[in-house]
Amino acid sequence: MYRFLLSRQWVILTLVALVLIPVMIKLGFWQFHRHERRVAQNALIADNLKAKAVPVETLTSPGHTVPRADYWQKVTATGTFDTAHEVVVRRRTNADDKVGMLVLTPLVLQDGRTVLVNRGWVPAAPDQKAYPEVPPAPKGEVTIAGRLKADETTGASGIKDLRGLPDRQVMLINSAQQAELTGAKVLGGYIEQTDPVTESPEQIPEPDHDSIGAHMAYAVQWWLFAAGVPVGWVILVRRERRDQEEARRKAAEGPEAPEPAAAAV
């Protein structure tokens, strides 16, 4: 009755179905875990943005790796901007997705250590090798506030750390690199400045922590596909069995007798 399942065509079809089911289930869990991570990240951002600001030196130090629990934590810093070692970070977009550069200015703290401050976004110069027009940082001692961020790496950001760039241009915001260039004791991570507010450089907007994306919908979709594979296989098997039984029935009945020719007038 079901001997056709041993045919080459049906063996291949069944094996493909058996492979697809666990693959689709795994893809569903992959999307589900992405949904969970997004929800957890949104909660972390919201909590840290609501938290009271603390001095940056209480959360980081030279060579320190900022843990995820401290990402976006509100911090303050008091010191003097070191514009002599200011650099720009290439190929970054603003809130309107325009490509430009970020202005990265070291702030020398009262204890002599330095923290990197992302002052915001500026348009790139017409010639990419040229340094863009950057509004000067405030002179004298200032107190700024912002969000603590971790050092950028190629592995985490996907941005290639290109060499041979024009003077005072970099690809990544990385305290270790800047410490090597300046010889200063640079605190790990950097501050994304939010106060004082400036129109130029254009400051980085607050990170999105409301949307959760479509990961959960994709997970359910993959699981439905996985459930549909055996259902589809059963439907195909029943259809094949019905077609073969119909063919055998017609073969058993024999060929139909031809209709008699019409009598000649």
Count of extended strands:
8
Number of discrete helical segments: 4
Q: What do the pLDDT scores average to?
A: 92
Q: Extract low-pLDDT stretches.
A: none
Strand content: 15-25%
Major sheet description: 5 strands, mixed, barrel
Task: Please identify the structural class as seen in this structure.
Answer: alpha/beta
General shape: elongated
Helix fraction bin: 25-40%
Give the oligomeric state.
Answer: single chain
Order of strands across the main sheet: 2-4-5-8-6
Distance between the termini: 53 Å
Secondary-structure element series:
HEEEEEEHEHEH
Topology (SSEs and partners):
Blueprint: H1 8-50, E1 54-55, E2 74-81, E3 87-93, E4 99-109, E5 114-123, E6 141-149, H2 154-157, E7 169-170, H3 175-182, E8 186-195, H4 215-253
Parallel strand pairs: 1-2, 3-7, 5-8
Antiparallel strand pairs: 2-4, 2-6, 3-4, 4-5, 6-8
Structural description of this entry:
With 265 residues, the chain is α/β, with parallel strands linked by helices. It has two domains: 3-40 and 215-245; 53-195, no CATH class. Helix content is 35%, strand content 22%. The protein is built from four helices and eight strands; from the N terminus they run H-E-E-E-E-E-E-H-E-H-E-H. It has helices at residues 8-50, 154-157, 175-182, 215-253; strands spanning 54-55, 74-81, 87-93, 99-109, 114-123, 141-149, 169-170, 186-195. It has a five-stranded mixed β-barrel. Strand 4 (99-109) and strand 5 form a beta hairpin. Helix 1 runs antiparallel to helix 4. The longest helix is centred in the N-terminal third of the chain and has 43 residues, at 8-50. The radius of gyration is 33 Å and the shape is elongated.
